[in-house]
Amino acid sequence: MTVQCSLIISTYNWPAALELCLQSIMKQHVLPNEIIIADDGSTAETQELIASYQQKSLVPLVHVWHEDNGFRLTQIRNKAVAKAQFPYIIQIDGDVMLHPAFIGDHLAIAQTENIVTGSRVNCDKAFSQDILVSGILPSLRAIQFNSTNYFNSLHIPMFSAIFANHYKTKGRHRDFTRGCNMAYWKRDFIAVNGYNEDMTGWGSEDKELFARMIQRGCRKKFLKFAGIVYHIWHYSASKEKEIRNESIYRKTVDLNITFIPNGIDKYLN
Questions:
Q1: Which of 36, 174, 228, 255 would bridge with 99, disulfide CB 3.0–4.6 Å?
Q2: Would you say the pTM of this structure is higher than 0.85?
């Protein structure tokens, strides 16, 4: 089956990282059908960067922005998904660079009522600072040898099928996911009402979403040895809301919740 997809990128006031992310998207072997930037209130510098890529991108590039009113990642991602024109959503963050086969790898594993998460390679601090200053997308070899988890950088797609249904898909890892590397069908996202906007600040919003989707009947796959992203080092975000968000997640699991009231539906036509 030929899958058409929207690539959603979340960002907030880090145009140097977003520049490298966009460079890596332009070099994809398979391009998404559209790119949507979910912008949690960035200033004019980011807007100007996006405008420049709207001129050079071979596919539509949409900028979804709302006013900066604190960490509202769940809300801006819901707004971006609502705008998506294609049935399959691939989701990343604006502080990652993509392996050239990233989009193709995700599309190869896409199946009805499946949700997918993948690994990330963590670039070390010094290397990250160097590439941010240069503004030049580094080679894959340079990234591999300047990362803190080399194993995750191995691109061996023939092994992906072996791990897809068994690696971190059950037990205590059932809901594990990374918001910087995940994919799902828009209809399945809407069926659980998307991200829970009661969750503001950093923490647990991605696994809470996956918990509801799994509890509704979606099957989780893990994209290992393919679909690789390279995370640019940065200081951790404030975790002041972590305990509250984790309690919301625990309630979702304990009560087998599949639909939340404060979600994407308010942005749908």
A1: 228
A2: yes
